[in-house]
Design brief:
globular; EC 4.2.1.33; 3-isopropylmalate dehydratase small subunit; 3-isopropylmalate dehydratase activity; alpha/beta; 7-stranded mixed β-sheet; Aconitase, domain 4; single chain; 24% strand; 7 strands; 7 helices
Length: 162
């Protein structure tokens, strides 16, 4: 993965919890099957319209709820290239990183709109809104975490380094 992620935005609001991201009634399915229902509680068409590299943008408290990995796993399976939010629930934040999904906190996430194309420099945290010709400052990803993300997550990183 490059240090630059560019994609179309799928925008949601505050308090998107893990039950919304990956509805619990589909937990027993394979990740491939469960991914078809990702975000379906608030956007029934999400799984059908998200394309590899697209960027999910949300408000405050993204990923609150349970600690199960199915939520970030379904997003990864669908090809979400990064997630930007005002702030994340810590367990979701760590699970996403462990699975190789870049997560950026940005206090200006509300300025980004559904359908915008944005470009994120993961090393600096700078988010360029190509559609609106605006720039926002998000959190940067430290080099050692970026290396883990570039390897596809914690397990592939450990397999390579141990």
């Amino acid at each position: 993965m490059s240090a630059i992620v560019r994609g179309k935005v799928h925008k949601y609001g505050d308090n998107i919890n893990t039950d919304i991201i990956s509805p619990p009634q589909y937990m027993e399915l394979s990740i491939a099957e469960a991914a078809k229902y990702a975000m379906s509680a608030i956007d029934p068409d999400f799984a059908a319209k998200v394309q590899k590299g697209d960027i999910l943008v949300a408000g405050a408290n993204f990923g609150s709820g349970s600690s199960r990995e199915t939520s970030p796993l379904t997003l990864k399976y669908l090809g979400v290239g990064a997630i930007v939010a005002k702030f994340f629930a810590r367990i979701f934040y760590r699970n996403a990183i462990n699975l190789g999904i870049p997560v950026i906190e940005c206090s200006d996430a509300d300025k980004i709109q559904n359908g915008d194309t944005i470009e994120i420099d993961l090393e600096t945290g700078i988010i360029r809104n190509i559609t609106r010709q605006e720039t926002y400052q998000g959190t940067r990803i430290p080099a050692h975490i970026l290396e883990l993300i570039n390897e596809g997550g914690l397990v592939p990183y450990l397999k390579k380094t141990i």
